[in-house]
Amino acid sequence: MQEQMNTPLLTAAFSGFVGGDAAASAHTASYLYGRRNVPSLYNAPGSYELGRRLSKVAHSRFWDGLHGGVNVDSDALTRTSPSAGGPKFVASFSGTTISNTGEAAQTLLNHVKNLPIDAVAEGRVTSPFAVTVVDLHHAPTSESHPTLKVAAPYLPILASIGASAGCAAIGDWHTFSMIVLGMVCNAATSVVLRSGDLTFNHPASTPGAPAGDGFLEAGNEIIVLKGSEDAVSTVTRGRFALRFNNDNALGRLNTAATLATLQCLAQLIVVPQGTVIGQLCFLFSIAVAWLYNAHMASVEKKAKATVVIENLLATPVTRRYSLGTRAAMAVFLMQVLKPTNVEEQLAALIPNNTRVWVVWRKTVARRLQDEKSVFDVGVPAEAVEFNAQEATLLRTLLCDAQAAVNVYVASRGRL
Description:
- Helix content is 52%, strand content 11%.
- It has helices at residues 2-13, 20-32, 47-58, 103-113, 154-169, 173-194, 229-237, 247-270, 276-312, 326-337, 342-349, 355-369, 388-411; strands at 88-91, 97-98, 119-120, 129-136, 143-144, 197-201, 214-218, 221-227, 239-243, 317-323.
- The strands form two sheets. Strands 2-1-7-8-4-10-3 form a seven-stranded mixed sheet, with helices on both faces. Strands 5-6-9 form a three-stranded antiparallel sheet, with no helix packed on it.
- Helix 2 (20-32) packs across helix 6.
């Protein structure tokens, strides 16, 4: 009989150490996005991880020994993934390069990947690129306070109430007390997080700064951003953060972290003392909560995508193109963005330094700046000393440039 009791209790007792990421996402998604005024009164897994995150935000010295690591800012609570870095950004006029943008840029990238292709460039295809032109016609203020309603946790609340009632009915007060403890601690954490204000911030533009046009690059996905400096900065440097107004709020966060950690330790010690039926009731409440938390973790990503695309960017107009080669992609970018240093930017996009590529970049830059965008009329004078293989390669690359010109001209009225 004792061996049978030991089988389920191991899983139940260690529930505080699993499911922490989903639990944290469920809390942040449900309260930071303005859910109904219903506390998370249910027994949930992952209390140790949740306590660790809250203690790092609260900068608690007391728990630094138990929860090792570096203290973080409150925006760590609002990230949909451990690493919220976005694609590289290159500004066409200011020359600014941001190696890792923020979550807003990554959200926009994920959004445009699902859009249909509007036009396909003719010509050869080696490594095709998708280029999406995004017209950022709306620039939000430097600080916004987005909200989004999501469903209240009625199902896990009912499951925890039912599980605790089942334990009470069979007289298993050890497990009953641990389920109730989990409900109270989880509800307290949700109430504390509700006092935070979800904000979206981006740096205000400098007076006299050049246009913010540029492009995001993530492998074979290119996103051209056209708009004011403020609008582009929203995408490239915008950040979600959870703001607490005073030290009392941080103190409440520390209290919530303490409760979550103590919940994990108490359940680890007390749950094994319960009956088999009681432990199964405990596992039932944990399983329902885990499913709800996993659902809320996916809802959080969709909620942030809605906030970024529809609220902050006001559903920008997009056009998506497919170009067959990197050379064609580079020429298309130069036509859409129209920088003053075309040759320099072509060299950054295609850093090959053979004499064929050097002549190609000079030819493309000269003809684009002279508005004589015709590339299929033979090789330039600089190529007279090329051998047959080099001349063939140059003609091929010029044909790629012509393919980019053709698709740009055909779509110019919509860019």
